[in-house]
């Protein structure tokens, strides 16, 4: 399957495809036009205010998956997202 898509099996052997969190947010960021995201602070504000994602959950996103998605999408915004996630992790590690 493409990067960021998992196949899930439920009772009765039925299966379905679902986007992992990294793919879901990458698609949302790519689909949202006119967000004005130009730097890390813009991305941080977008995540926390527009999408209402808390810092703890942002830090749980897998940067390896996002790096692959950013490359395949050719997306500067997803590269910024990766930097923001790393920054959140660094901040959390300093406070622990």
Main beta-sheet strand count, sense and barrel state: 2 strands, antiparallel
Look at the structure and give the mean pLDDT. Answer: 91
Strand tally is 2
Strand order of the largest sheet: 1-2
Ranges with pLDDT <50 over ≥5 residues?
A: none
Choose one word for the global shape: globular
Secondary-structure element sequence? EEHHHHH
Strand content: 5-15%
Can you walk me through this structure?
- This protein is mainly alpha-helical and 96 residues long.
- Helix content is 59%, strand content 10%.
- α4 (63-73) packs antiparallel against α5.
- A two-stranded antiparallel sheet has the order 1-2.
- It is globular and about 45 Å long.
- β1 (5-9) and β2 (15-19) form a beta hairpin.
Reconstruct the topology from this structure.
Elements: E1 5-9, E2 15-19, H1 21-31, H2 40-50, H3 55-58, H4 63-73, H5 76-95
Antiparallel strand pairs: 1-2
Helix pairs in contact: 2-5, 4-5
Task: Summarize the entry for a quick read.
With 96 residues, the protein is mainly alpha-helical. The chain is built from 5 helices and 2 strands. Strands 1-2 form a two-stranded antiparallel ribbon.
